[in-house]
Amino acid sequence: MAPSDIVVSPVVTKADLKAFIDLPKRLYAGHKGYVPHLDVERREAYSPKKNPLFQHVEVQFFLARRDGRVVGRITAQIDRASLERYADSTGHFGCLVAEDDPAIFAALFAAVEAWLKSKGMVRATGPFSLSVNEEVGLLIDGFDSRPVLMVPYDPPYAGSRVEACGYAKIKDLFSYDYDVQNAPETIGAKLMARAGMAGRVKVRTANMKMFDAEVRTLVGIFNDAWSDNWGFVPFTQAEIDHASKAFGPVIVPELAVFVEVDDEAVAFIVALTNLNEAIDGFNGKLGPLSLAKLLYRLKIAGVGSTRVPLMGVKKKFRNHPLMGAGLAMMAIDHLRANGKRLGKTSAELGWILEDNKATNNIIRSVGGVHYKTHRIYEKALG
């Protein structure tokens, strides 16, 4: 059918939002790499009243319909924090889900581009759902790999459909599979000893009695370590507070590791329980029975997989020929040992920019296997 058969309109009503949330569940049902988000979590993530991201990000949600039937969805957004940092007149797209039809993709992107141009943007990048600090990139490799918390799933056809709409690659993001039970010990401690730092370094886990302070420490290291990364936008305090509350159920103190030099926390790594494993089979619903199953899986049966979404070494140590790698490896070693003791089987380490050679080399050297790739696209808006 021609694009004129497709009507793209903004999400306005509660029914529209429900359709927006439900679409991937219908299209991706049975896909090995996909587990639906919890509906309640998505409603909060998309709510300007509940998600502090909306304090600096303006978002327009769109649905595509053909003969009244929802066949696609997308968001257009402008992140004022990103514009203030980069002054590049760049808007973003995200939350892209559509049937495998080039006309649907074309209609969705036409709506996004018109909205962004009306706001003065000259370039579109994405997908960011809904920001660079949330779910990032479009899956182009690893479609059958395990579903992991806050890691987007896309079907094999999506990449070519996006590119047919005039979008080109900016960056690829790598994710690694790490065998917690069998990964070898690193040379981190040896590197620190060679650097003459052995007696000045200690490794510790998070103190949950000082949770807010520990989160501030972690974010402080993250903002320093990642500040030169492509696309970096620092977390706001409101976002930090919101994430701390949201991720509380999947934080395991033994899997949040800090490395200190002379009692200063200079490196960290944190692994979160893979909620996607715990909610597999729920189809987004969290009723009394599924809630009981969730608690059983989290607290009794145990969830074997984890995700490492954040790690970092402060810049003043990162570029040292021994200490940058040594501090990161010591954090990984401690995480691995604790995870092994807790019965964890795997960790996804990612995402890592394809051109971040130092971090990619460290992860590969400690046993990480590149198994998933996401892509970020761009297009000039004429």
Can you describe this structure?
The protein has about 375 residues and is of the alpha+beta class. The protein has two domains: about 5-170, Aminopeptidase; about 180-380, Gcn5-related N-acetyltransferase (GNAT) (Aminopeptidase), CATH 3.40.630. It is built from 13 helices and 15 strands. It has helices at about 15-25, 40-45, 80-85, 100-120, 160-165, 190-195, 210-225, 235-245, 275-280, 290-300, 315-320, 325-340, 355-365; strands at about 5-10, 55-65, 70-80, 90-100, 125, 130, 135, 140, 170-180, 200-205, 250-260, 265-275, 305-315, 345-355, 370-380. The strands form two sheets. Strands 1, 2, 3, 4, 5, 8, 9, 10, 11, 12, 13, 14 and 15 form a 13-stranded mixed sheet that branches. It has a two-stranded antiparallel sheet with strand order 6-7. Helix 4 links the parallel strand 4 (about 90-100) and strand 5. Helix 6 runs antiparallel to helix 12. The longest helix has 19 residues, at about 325-340. The radius of gyration is 21 Å and the shape is globular.
